[in-house]
Specification:
By secondary structure, the chain is an alpha/beta fold. The protein has two domains: 184 residues, D-Maltodextrin-Binding Protein, domain 2; 203 residues, Periplasmic binding protein-like II (D-Maltodextrin-Binding Protein, domain 2). Helix content is 39%, strand content 13%. It contains 19 helices and twelve strands. Strands 1, 2, 3, 6, 11 and 12 form a six-stranded mixed beta sheet that branches. It has a four-stranded mixed beta sheet with strand order 8-9-7-10, covered by helices on one side. It is globular. 43% of the residues are buried.
Length: 489
């Protein structure tokens, strides 16, 4: 009897110990829990960042705002409507959107918002047009604006902001979140002047790099050339290639009715590297004249390359008649007929299809000249809202997140301006390298000609620079003609 009692007692004690060691049951998630982000949950050793934390440096992208208790994104940090959307508050609602994405770009865009639609029940009804500028003018000016519009040219958005048609996004997107997830440069470029003063007119969703110099890597390495990191080194490389009996630069600006735009990119690049960002902005706004010492200085750096017959394939006279897409092709001749080509990341679509990135060709960041830091010129897409409903607010708030672009990045179709976009998302090494340059940039500015009034940026600037390059007008005449074309207020 005593043995039985002892054995029974031992069995009870063992059962109690086993129960104490067993893991607690995990509660099932509820619909009220926010959807998880791509970022890992913070550990106790790394608390979630707060709005009181200092802004991230340019060289180190900011982390996402995780919710410390669940490891999920706290969407209320972005805006109330986005947090509500992930509880299903706007399920069944439709948000209309217009932009220039067609064909495969439209497919990639729709794929990029599928996760958001599935989790919130909001339908984003996208309508892309190859005649975007004309169609969106008709829609907005006719009082039939889509809820959200993607503008590839911020200057067009600025005209609608001036007339009071676009929403001020600062009224509902949390300012602290914008400061955390974008470089200040992006926020500055999203500020535009409405009837009652400056507003946050849009948020940036995609970016393209422009200040890039492409070269035939295999032949470049074989020749013993080194990638320059300063302007002096770039000019020394240019001189060395010329001394070796070759032509350093491949340059062409012919583009049909848009002939001349590649030179505007060169001048914009030089402006960012020879004067302050504030002067660049004044130039875009028309308060710093083309006929000014600052612009003339930038042009001088360009023409020292362009107008040197030893530096340009075909010489100065060939620049205006060489199609911009054909200009880099002599780099791939055997041996190369030219070695360096400045152009945005889209130019690879004009390269021979059998050439491999990182093997047959590569690129480097266009070095700075005499300004501090690493300025970088970009193009891209700015999203604006035109109808104020909670579900519209939720959608535009969502586009401030890197996760809104994740699948598009993974499909090799986008570069993100968001600080919380991970470089690990990039499968294409070229796009990943450009994304790194963008993250490291200390100053970012949009293509100036795309920000200027159309009569200048897509008119006299192109036209007069083409005439200047071809030699039919001198610099004085070209600059005065551009200034004269600026619309009178």
């Amino acid at each position: 009897m005593k043995r039985s009692f002892t054995f029974f007692s031992l069995m009870i004690i063992m059962a109690m110990l086993l129960a104490a060691c067993a893991p607690a049951a995990t509660p099932a998630p509820t619909e009220a829990m926010p959807a998880p982000t791509q970022a890992p949950a913070p550990t106790e050793a790394m608390p979630a960042p707060t709005e009181a934390m200092p802004a991230p440096t340019e060289a180190m992208p900011a982390p996402t705002q995780p919710a410390a208790s669940t490891g999920a994104m706290d969407y209320s940090k972005v805006g109330k409507e986005l947090a509500d959307a992930f509880t299903g508050a706007y399920k069944g609602k439709t948000v209309t959107m217009a932009g220039p994405f067609t064909d495969q770009d439209a497919v990639k865009f729709n794929d990029s918002v599928k996760d958001f639609q599935d989790k919130t029940g909001i339908t984003i009804q996208y309508n892309g047009s190859k005649e975007f500028e004309a169609s969106i003018r008709i829609a907005i000016e006719g009082g039939n604006a889509p809820d959200v519009v993607d503008f590839p040219q911020p200057g067009l958005l600025a005209s609608f902001v001036a007339s009071g048609k676009a929403l001020d996004l600062s009224k509902f997107i949390n300012a602290g979140w914008l400061k955390q997830n974008y470089k200040q440069s992006w926020l500055d470029m999203g500020q535009m002047t409405g009837p009652n003063g400056p507003i946050t007119a849009g948020i940036w969703a995609r970016a393209n790099g422009k200040d890039l110099v492409w070269y035939p890597k295999a032949e470049f390495d074989k020749a013993g050339y080194k990638v320059p990191t300063t302007w002096d080194e770039l000019m020394a490389l240019t001189d060395q290639i010329a001394k070796d009996g070759d032509t350093p630069w491949c340059i062409g600006i012919e583009s049909g009715a848009a002939t001349g735009w590649p030179m505007t990119d060169w001048i914009e690049m030089a402006m960012l590297r020879t004067t302050t960002p504030e002067n660049y902005d004044k130039w875009v706004q028309g308060t710093l004249k083309f006929d000014s010492p600052e612009v003339r200085k930038a042009i001088d750096y360009v023409t020292k390359i362009w107008f040197n017959e030893k530096y340009v394939y075909g010489g100065r006279k060939a620049i205006a008649t060489t199609a911009f897409g054909d200009a880099p092709k002599p780099m791939f001749d055997n041996p190369p007929k030219c070695w360096l080509h400045k152009q945005g990341n889209f130019i690879t679509s004009f390269f021979p299809t059998d050439k491999v990135a990182g093997v047959d060709y590569d690129f480097f960041y266009m070095p700075n000249i005499d300004q501090p830091g690493k300025p970088f010129e970009v193009a891209g897409d700015i999203y604006a809202a035109f109808n104020d409903r909670p579900e519209v607010r939720a959608v535009i708030e969502y586009f401030t997140l890197g996760e809104s672009l994740k699948t598009w990045i993974e499909a090799n179709g986008a570069i993100s301006p968001h600080n919380d976009a991970s470089l690990d998302w990039y499968k294409d090494p070229t796009l990943k390298k450009i994304a790194q340059i963008l993250q490291d940039a200390t100053v970012v500015r949009f293509d100036a000609s795309d920000m200027m009034p159309g009569a200048v940026g897509a008119g006299s600037f192109w036209k007069e620079m083409t005439a200047f390059v071809s030699g039919s007008v001198n610099e004085d005449t070209a600059l005065k003609e551009i200034d004269a074309s600026w619309p009178k207020k």
